[in-house]
Known about the structure:
GTPase that plays an essential role in the late steps of ribosome biogenesis. This is GTPase Der. Belongs to the TRAFAC class TrmE-Era-EngA-EngB-Septin-like GTPase superfamily. EngA (Der) GTPase family. Residues 3-163 form the EngA-type G domain. The chain is α/β, with parallel strands linked by helices. The protein has one domain: P-loop containing nucleotide triphosphate hydrolases (Rossmann fold). Helices cover 31% and strands 21% of the residues. The protein is built from 5 helices and 6 strands. It has helices spanning 15-22, 67-82, 98-107, 124-130, 152-161, and strands at residues 4-8, 41-47, 50-56, 85-91, 114-119, 141-143. It has a 6-stranded mixed β-sheet with strand order 2-3-1-4-5-6, sandwiched between helices. α3 links the parallel β4 (85-91) and β5 (114-119). The site of magnesium ion (MG) has 3 residues, from α1.
Amino acid sequence: AGFTVAIVGRPNVGKSTLFNRLLEQRKAIVDDFSGVTRDRQYGVAEWCGKTFNVIDTGGFVSRSEDVFEKEIRKQVLIALDEADVILFVCDTATGITTLDDEMADVLRRSPKPVLLVVNKVDNAARLLEANEFYALGFDKVFFVSSISGSGTGELLDEVVAQM
Ligand code: GDP
Ligand code: MG
């Protein structure tokens, strides 16, 4: 129970790095099963005195079969089923890929709020490039660097505002 945020996105965009960043204050209660295949990871985050669950949906990467069918569809189903807010993570280092476009097509029809998180915005040059992600058609776009934590405060402010 409780307010739940799900992190979705194609492999390597930085979902798990963002997950760990959001759980920074509460890391002690996060399971650490490195190398163990699980289809999602749960944690609890706290921001502005409010506590909420976070799900990293990316733990089941299966590159041997159709990536969209096996990974993306499942991530989105988990998110739509369990989450109150969905964080759709993209990667400004690679730009918009076909898989991003396919996920965006599904997520734009989500009845739950979707926040577009453009990750790996590590510097000013990356911020300029990151503007291309407005083309995916989401109202709420956040530019973050999960590695440094830059921009994640604004993202957390919006998550808490949705509670
Ligand atoms: P996932 O597959 O979506 O869970 O992605 P990971 O969290 O495993 O990250 C994939 C790679 O991107 C790793 O090498 C991370 O260190 C790197 N990464 C994640 N966030 C950032 C970021 O904000 N900036 C940069 N430069 N690299 C990042
Ligand atoms: Mg991951």
